[in-house]
Amino acid sequence: MNRWLVALTLVIAPVLLPVRAGALMNLHPGDVSPPFTLPDLAGKPRSNETLAGAPAVVLFWSTWSPRSSEMLDDFKRHAAVYGGMGLKIIAINIDGENLGAGQKSAIREYAGSRELPFPVLLDEDLKTFAAWGVMAHPTEVVLDAGGRIAYVLPGYPPSLREELEEAIRKTLGIKAPPAPAVALSGAEEEAHMFWNLGRRFLVTGDPERAREAFRRAATADPSWLEAPIMVARISLALGSPVEAEQLARQVSPETINRGDLRYLLGNLMLLKGDLDAAERTFRGLQERLPAEGWGAWGLGMVALARGDYRAALVALEQASRLQPENPEAEAFVRRHFRDRFLRQEAIPEEAQFVKIFPALAEIRERYYRVFLPRRPAPGEAAP
Fold first, then answer.
1. CB-hemisphere CA count at 13 Å for 210?
2. Which pairing describes strands 149-154 and 37-39: parallel, antiparallel, or unpaired?
3. What does the buried/exposed string (b/e) look like for 313-352 if buried means 16 or more CB atoms within 10 Å of the residue's CB?
4. What domains are there in the chain, each with its CATH number?
5. What b/e readout covers 109-129, taking b as 16+ CB neighbours within 10 angstroms?
6. Are 160 and 153 in contact (CB under 8 A)?
7. 234: Cβ–Cβ under 8 A, 6 or more apart, which residues?
8. Is pTM, for the whole model, over 0.90?
9. What gap in Å lies between CA 135 and CA 323, rounded to an integer?
10. CB 80 within 8 A of CB 112
11. Is residue 108 exposed (0-12), middle (13-18) or buried (19+ Cβ within 10 Å)?
12. Interatomic CA distance for residues 280 and 363, integer angstroms
């Protein structure tokens, strides 16, 4: 069976929870993309005007992001396939502010070794990065021929790369090719059907029915580990650790070395209040697989549980760049903030947390204005 080897950052967060790191801060599909003029690798200024009149993709990438490397290689192939059909591509490097000569040379060498067939620009002061509100490395923005945002994919998760290519084809007016015929057993075909059903329920904002569909996919094909992992992650996001515990008991010692499974174990320890054990698990994960973001998310949650808001911010900011969508972490942050709001307690560095999870501002207002009685100001009579 084609497993699609999901990175498990699927489409849960936008529909399962109101707290999420946005794809582009303050920009949405249909908005006109902000203008830019940036130097290419030879120092020649190039602007977004070179994209005018044709569908285009703007790639924000960095040399230190493993998924940026995968994304650039894939878009080299996309350029070969869709370039002749009118697609334009520009790759904007966002390695950091105030790039020195050595850093620029390293970026040129990095891009040159891949023989990229599209312009590579340097966002030397990260002003374009800020103007577009990029929140993940890498991020891919599909534009229509009028320069309006048609589709955004933050983080380049494997599970959504096909959807990204479909968005490119749509802007070019190309019909999706027919799905290739794949010989599936009856059980695999049933699992495939329930997996797709689960995704549809997630998109329509029904996590409970999505979880049940993924359960049925796991039952139909017990060898497919991604299905029970998805069940466990939805359960954790909903505050129910039972199925994650069942999965932990069932997996073999070999598979437990997977980053996503180690992360689930750390979450179980965190929910049970064993912060020391959870921190050891997440720290080990961060040391072994720093580019995947699992460890950083976990360490951010542990720091938040300990009340160390500065350490939590550092970890969560790093995690949101590496892996923008994480429903369990976002649910944990939401519950923590909800409890603080209900107690009418100030939250240190609140504005910075809202930048990572913009919906926190709405949640805060809802709890203060709707669910809580308004406390009278000093000297004011109680209502």
1. 26
2. unpaired
3. bbbbbbbbbbbbbbbbbbbbbbebbbeebeeeeeeeeeee
4. 12-171 (3.40.30.10), 277-370 (1.25.40)
5. ebbeeeebebbbbbbbeeebb
6. yes
7. 12, 16, 207, 210, 211, 214, 327
8. no
9. 10
10. no
11. middle
12. 31
Contact (CB, 8 A) for 80 and 111? no
pLDDT tens per residue across all 383 residues of the chain: 222 222 233 333 333 333 333 468 778 888 999 999 999 999 999 999 989 899 999 999 998 888 899 899 999 989 988 888 899 999 999 988 888 889 999 999 999 998 999 999 999 989 999 899 888 889 999 999 999 999 998 888 777 888 899 899 999 988 655 544 555 567 778 888 888 888 777 656 677 888 898 889 888 888 777 788 888 878 877 777 777 777 777 766 556 667 778 888 888 888 888 999 999 989 988 888 887 788 998 999 999 999 999 999 999 888 877 766 676 787 788 888 888 877 777 778 888 887 777 767 766 676 666 555 554 444 545 44
End-to-end CA distance of the chain: 64
- Cα angle, residue 314 at apex, residues 312 and 316 outer, rounded to 5°: 65
